[in-house]
Amino acid sequence: MRILVVGGGGREHVLCWKLSQSPQVGTVYCIPGNSGIESLDKCTCINSDGDDIDFLLDFAIKEAIDFTVVGPEAPLVKGIVDSFRSKGLLILGPEKEASLLEGSKVWAKEFMREFKIPTASFEVFDNYEKACDYIERRNCPLVIKADGLAAGKGVFVTDGPGEAKEAVNQIMKEKVFGAAGSQIIIEERLSGEEASILAITDGERFWTMPSAQDHKAAYEGDTGPNTGGMGAYSPAPVMDADKIRFTEENVFVPLLEGMKKRGLVYRGIIYAGLMITEEGPQVLEFNVRFGDPEAQVIIPRFDGDITTVLKSAAGGALSGEWNWSDFAAVCVVMASGGYPGSYEKGKEIKGLSEAGALPDTFVFHAGTAN
Ligand code: AMP
Ligand code: GLY
Which atom of ligand 1 is least distant from the CA of 105? Predict the structure, then answer.
């Protein structure tokens, strides 16, 4: 089997690593990939734009790709699944409209409200003055969110009205996220511990993965700016069996029913970012793909041929073995100094093969080159 993986981060490295272990797989192409992926048996990276859907489609047709897995959200939100399916190609991920679950926070919150998925109470605004009036009236800690994709930076967790209005100013007047901020959500600020729970679905059924928790703050002791993730671990002890069952029944089941009621096909990964409040788990956000770095701690715990499961979900009939190791996994991200602000590129990284040779230790790359 010939597989295409779209993306070039740690998530795509762990996916390529696991997929290429399958005896069914002959070749894994990864676009753009990275030098860690390039060094894997059976894997070849193509240094091209992983967001260029026409290029990816052309590539998949020319190279007779049997199955495509998409790592990041951008190609999904741009409609890669619709394009591939229209040519009869097998691809894992939700269609363009269903990807709005991640691509538009307004769409996602309204979907949650309609299908009674537990989430913070909220209002939507497209007018600066009305948003500020609302903040004055609520007079409690609020969270301000830009509607569209903002590389994980479009959320402001605020302590009081002054800070909340400044966030609205940044998004709506300064337009720091461009068109992604033409609508905003103002929602109740929840408190509790956060955890993520992912599932794979063929559109009808879903299978839940072990829980994970990512670590967003850049520096030690949960300090510093938020990043794409400085590490993760799995399982997250806060997600006990009752909370997992609660999430399955109150989040994943209504989500799939809602998608079907709207006539949308969702075959792929569902990622629920949860806050475990005193009233139980509430959804902070959905992603329509594996999390990164969460994938780096979840996928190594999978015991079996992941190709069968991912491909069967894409085909609309989940099958294969769904077994998970009891071992816990932890991931620590090493990034160039200065990240998530500006940082030096092109530095040599030494000692990776020694690290990777340690027992039960894997080195996954993101954005590296030889
Ligand atoms: P999101 O992209 O919506 O998951 O938000 C990013 C981060 O902002 C989350 O991981 C939380 O730490 C925080 N956050 C989002 N919504 C809320 C909320 N309603 N209450 C408290 N914190 C929140
Ligand atoms: N680690 C969070 C995400 O992948 O969105």
Answer: 3
